[in-house]
Amino acid sequence: MVDVLAPLAIFALMLAIVYVVTGPLRRGAMTQAQAREESDRQNLEAARDAKYREIRDAELDRETGKLSDADWRVLDRELRGEAVDILRRLDDLHGR
Amino acid sequence: MAIIGRAALIIALVVCAYGIFASVYGALKGRRDFVESARRAVYALALTTTVAFAVLEIAFLRSDFSFSVVASHSSTTTPWHYKAAAMWSSQEGSLLLWVWLLSIWSSLVIFLTRHRLRDVVPWATAVLLGYGAFFTGLLVFWVHPFTTLAQAPADGQGLNPLLRHPAMMIHPPMLYSGYTLFAIPFAFAIGALIAKRVDAEWIRSTRRFALAAWLLLGCGILLGARWSYTELGWGGYWAWDAVENASLMPWLTGTAFIHSIMIQEKRGMLKVWNVSLVLATGILCVLGTFLVRSGILDSIHAFGASTLGVPFVTLIAGMSIGSIALVVWRRGLLRSEHKLDSFLSREAIFLLNNLVLVALCFVIFWLTFLPLITEIFGDQRAVGPPVFSRYTVPLALVLVLLSGIGPLIAWRRATPRNLRKTFAMPVLFGVVAFVALLFVPNVPQKPLALAMFVLGAFVIGTIAQEVWRGAVARHAMTGEVYPLAVVSLVRRNRRRYGGYFVHLGIVILFVGVAASTAFQHAEDVRLQVGQTATVNGYQVKYERSTATYRSDPRGTGALLTLGAVLDVSKHGKHVATLYPARGYFPSDDASQGLFTQLINGDPTSEVALKTGPTRDFWTAVSPDFSKLQPMVDAIDKAIPPNVSQAGLIRGLQAGLTALQARYEQSPPPAMFRLISSPLVMWIWIGALISIGGGLIALWPAPDAARRRATAAIRARVAQDLGRA
Questions:
Q1: Residue B552: its pLDDT value, please?
Q2: Which of A36, B53, B235, B508 qualifies as a FRET site for B348, CA 20 to 30 Å off?
Q3: CA distance to partner chain A, nearest, from residue B395 (Å)
Q4: Which candidate, B496, B303, B322, B512, places its Cα nearest to that of B400?
Q5: Do B265 and A50 touch (CB under 8 A)?
Q6: Given this model, what pLDDT does residue B724 score?
Q7: Do A81 and B720 count as a contact with CB atoms less than 8 A apart?
Q8: B450 vs B381, more confident
């Protein structure tokens, strides 16, 4: 019984893998433009979140005394400028 | 069942080969369908290796001795939990564990980045499948986990007694998880270099994997140290052994990496350094895997030599040459976007910390490989722990100092006024500790240990101040009570405060190491029953001997256990009663007498220790077996050559009972190793705090908290957007 079941199980495993792995080749994937847009959008969103984290970190540095108010204002303005740039690029992507 | 496992590995190898082709072809030709197909090949690799892993694990649990590897690494008398872990005590099983873990982590990262890093992911996929192809190739062509025996033996040879320890059940999976998780940032770094996408995006996508790798590798190292301390009979937790060092080196470069990527994320600096660090870490992980199994360097942890030298050396050479070539090829793209504004900045401290970590790694690498390097020139030389300590201790002191300074300095530039404000309290902590320690007996005579304690106090001051100031700021903003403010602060800034807790744990660990090495008292004494030895003011009396047969109290499966009952007291006051023992196992040597064979395998120490927050008292016993040898020989002679099976069993049992009775009634003298070490417990406590900190840093921020924080910043940024 085991002698028959083992080759059957192996054959089923192979079949399932071939079916799943070649799926995208049979269907045809999303177009280059769609894929690029999706990827760019996700990259920009990650960059935006990272920039927000930097802004928050600078704020915490000021609150814990590592940055003076004057230094923080300069840094915060610079970081917000960079965040604005990322948001503009995201808007451009959505408007496309 | 074996045929299913074998077939699963062959399918896995084919899947890897196809996936490498599909991802490279997809990347070169811009064919997303091929890239998507390669992604699914990674999932298929996980499926097939899971099947192979499950087949072998089931064989171990069922004690199916038709599998050669089960017969040689397990037995019917091996406790079930050790049967489950016996798989990775074998070379075949450990390589299968490696590729299985790699396939799981690879699937996870490939799934999480399915819509991101469009240019990088196909190359990273090819690298990860390349790793998969190498290890499945070894399992298909070199070592064979599914080899079966024509005639299955009635019982197996059993698990190496030294590995019958709870820590050893999870030590290899932890270590290998660390190694395989570091393959993720390695693969993405290669992908970023090939795809010319060397910004911080690949770092953001793999940062958590690097952190998880660091954490699990650290856990693995810690479990190894704990095993060494409580199982091996020499009484230490770290011997600067080649295999221990092999796991420490990638951990050190990985530590440098998770610090320096913050500089690239924030400032676009140190790109060459970061890719070099992660490439070196990936290579050191493969080197670590190789060293454990190769036997090329003497080690108390290397469980057998192997024939894998050529493929592993080829892989390591290929990875090294390829990595260097890629970095040189892309050097133009790896230029920093900013320059270091000031040496009084967090970037500068992080850079120094990186240099120290890499110097530590280099020193350890050089001293570990010194025997091999000097052998090439005909005069093999090995160095011991004192040489390692001579170079590593000063570097560790600098590292602790920097871990206290880093959190106190702002990014970009710190002003003298800010420095005065932030350094006053931590420096005060250090000064108070220094003055107090001058009055502690023996401490001033150990300047390196004293320096570590003082710097430890400085770092603890830094962290306490950071948490306190953050809580005060939070309290002022929200009105939360202080304990709640601390919790909220940590929840909302997990990466920062998780990192601080890691620093706290590491410093406590270092203090434990400094104290337990500088102020340790160790004695090797030979005692008869009734005699007493004195170690560091502790009186240790050998009260009586113990002997058990087939009822090993520690569950290691030892056939015969000979031990001692020790009464430990200080100034006449009872401290502890300890029961060190030594387990005796059967031998494979058929040339010996049948009874000798039964108990003449490698014996193991069963350590007994009294542990406490201020001091550990550690004991191990080694009975003088030579005094029992005449009796063992006599029992061997008493067994007739043509005895029946039942008669043989009766004879062996009678022999064991007689030996047990003899050892209990008139034991020969025994050698005892007695060690009194302060603060050892703090090594394990510090490590646990570090693991907790690592988990905090790793855990994603709760969605609601992130949304609230982000909404406030978005409003401020929106103001600017409106103005622009």
A1: 67
A2: B508
A3: 27
A4: B512
A5: yes
A6: 47
A7: yes
A8: B450
- Closest-CA distance, A94 to chain B, in angstroms, reads 16
For residues B540 and B562, what is the distance between their CA atoms, to the nearest angstrom? 18
Q: Domain-by-domain residue ranges, chain B?
A: 1-158, 415-519+683-723, 528-679
As a whole number of angstroms, the distance between CA B389 and CA B387 comes to: 5
Phi, psi of B666 (to 5 degrees): -140, 75
Residue B99, classed as helix, strand or coil, is helix
Cβ contacts of A29 on chain B, cutoff 8 Å: 31-33, 35-36
Q: What topology is assigned to B1-158 in CATH?
A: Four Helix Bundle (Hemerythrin (Met), subunit A) (1.20.120)
For A10, the closest chain B residue by CA position comes to B4
- Poorest-pLDDT segment among B236-240, B262-266, B388-392, B683-687: B262-266
Among B33, B472, B703, pick the best mutation site for testing chain A contact (most A Cβ within 10 A): B33
Asked if the C-beta of A73 comes within 8 angstroms of chain B's C-beta atoms, the answer is no
Measure in Å the smallest separation between the Cα of A14 and chain B Cα atoms: 7
Distance CA B480, CA B93 (A): 53
Long-range pairs for B74-80: beta carbons < 8 A, 24 or more residues apart: B74/B156, B74/B158, B74/B159, B75/B155, B75/B156, B75/B157, B75/B158, B75/B159, B75/B557, B76/B155, B76/B156, B77/B155, B77/B158, B77/B557, B78/B156, B78/B158, B78/B159, B78/B164, B78/B557, B79/B164, B79/B555, B79/B557
- Mean pLDDT over all residues of chain B? 89
Q: Which two tokens stand for residue B94?
A: 């450990």
Name, in order, each residue with C-beta under 8 angstroms of A59's C-beta and a sequence gap of 6 or more: A72, A76
Residue B434 contacts residue B376 (beta carbons within 8 Å): no
Please tell me the pTM assigned to this model.
0.89
Q: How far apart are CA B92 and CA B137, in angstroms?
A: 12
Report yes or no: B23 and B194 within 8 Å, Cβ to Cβ. no
Encode pLDDT of B6-55 as tens digits: 999 999 999 999 999 999 999 998 888 999 999 999 999 999 999 999 99
Q: Is B421 within 8 Å of A65 when comparing Cβ atoms?
A: yes
Average pLDDT for B101-108: 96
Give the span between the Cα atoms of B504 and B686, in whole angstroms.
7
Locate the chain B residue with the closest alpha carbon to A8.
B4
The two structure tokens encoding residue B417: 């006024």
User: Span B117-142, mean pLDDT?
Assistant: 94
Percentage of residues in chain A having pLDDT higher than 90: 15
Give the percent of chain B with pLDDT over 90: 58
Evaluate if residue A46 carries a pLDDT over 90.
Answer: no
Q: What is the DSSP letter of B145?
A: T
Among B3, B118, B473, beta carbon nearest to A36: B118
B723/B256: higher pLDDT: B256
pLDDT given for residue A12 in this prediction: 92
Distance, CA of B544 to CA of B379 (rounded, Å): 49
Cα–Cα distance for residue pair B354/B346, rounded to 1 Å? 12
H-only helix segments in B519-644: 594-599, 629-638
* Helix (H), strand (E) counts: chain A: 4, 0
Give me the residues of A, 16-55, that contact B with CB < 8 A.
Answer: 17, 20-25, 27-32, 35-36, 38-40, 42-43, 46-47, 49-50, 52, 54-55
- Mutate: best of B713, B719, B721, partner A, most A CBs <10 A: B713
Residue B666: both structure tokens together: 């008139």
